[in-house]
Amino acid sequence: MTLTAEFFARPVLEVAPELVGVTLLVGGVGGRIVEVEAYHPDEPASHSFRGQTARNTTMFGEPGHAYVYRSYGIHWCLNFVCEPRSAVLIRALEPTHDVEAMRARRALDDVRRLCSGPGRLCQALAVTNHHDGLPLDRPPFELRPREFEPEVATAPRIGITRAVELPWRYAEQRSPFLSRALPRA
Fold first, then answer.
1. CA 37, CA 62: separation in Å to the nearest integer?
2. Cis peptide leading into 41, omega within 30 of 0?
3. CA-based angle 34:109:122, to the nearest 5?
4. So what's the pLDDT on residue 7?
5. Single pTM value for the model
6. Any idea where the domains of the chain sit in the sequence?
């Protein structure tokens, strides 16, 4: 069973925390999502905030598609499109499926660092601009529902300069696979 487009056809602030614990596979390689960030069209950190461009066209399309863009001209970043003009950035995974392929792609042995950050995650899963616009409920993507309900913490998003105060980062509490540790309460 895989998550369908209907799962994503909801407000991004509902979808984002429910993605923590979902298994993401790309061509059979991947793991459990442990960290995400929500981007809403009405806040200035969202790529859709200033309108449609060639780069963000996928965000204006149907829910349940991959939105892939290059960050700082270096790293690919994978997002899942939700309601129109909103998306969830996939920040980190706990590697569980074909860890050896991820190690080879990243030239790295430390399993905790394989997918701990959006750029690292895309490199480990071999996600590139060729995945932009692809439906999430068909190969090469597979999104398996949670096997258990994780303890999800919220925190401010990281790596942005606008709307930094919004607590729209969702992460599995105490996961050693996060891109950055959660702030202490």
1. 19
2. no
3. 45
4. 96
5. 0.93
6. 5-172
Report the alpha-carbon distance of residue 137 to residue 108 in Å, rounded: 30
pLDDT at residue 130, as a whole number? 96
pLDDT tens digits for 114-131? 999 999 999 999 999 999
DSSP element (H, E) containing 38: strand 29-39
Amino acid symbol at 4: T
Query: CA 152 to CA 58: how far, in whole Å?
Result: 28
User: What radius of gyration, in Å, describes the C-alpha atoms of the chain?
Assistant: 15
Which CATH number describes the domain made up of 5-172?
3.10.300.10
SS3 letters across 48-112: CCCCCCCCCHHHHCCCCEEEEEEECCCEEEEEEECCCCCEEEEEEEEEEECHHHHHHHHCCCCHH
Between strands 141-144 and 152-155, the pairing is unpaired
Average pLDDT, the chain: 90
Measured CA to CA, the distance from residue 76 to residue 72 in angstroms comes to 9
pLDDT in tens, 151-165: 999 988 777 666 667
Contact (Cβ atoms closer than 8 angstroms) between residue 12 and residue 40: yes
pLDDT digits (tens, 9 = 90+) for 10-35: 999 999 999 999 999 999 999 999 99
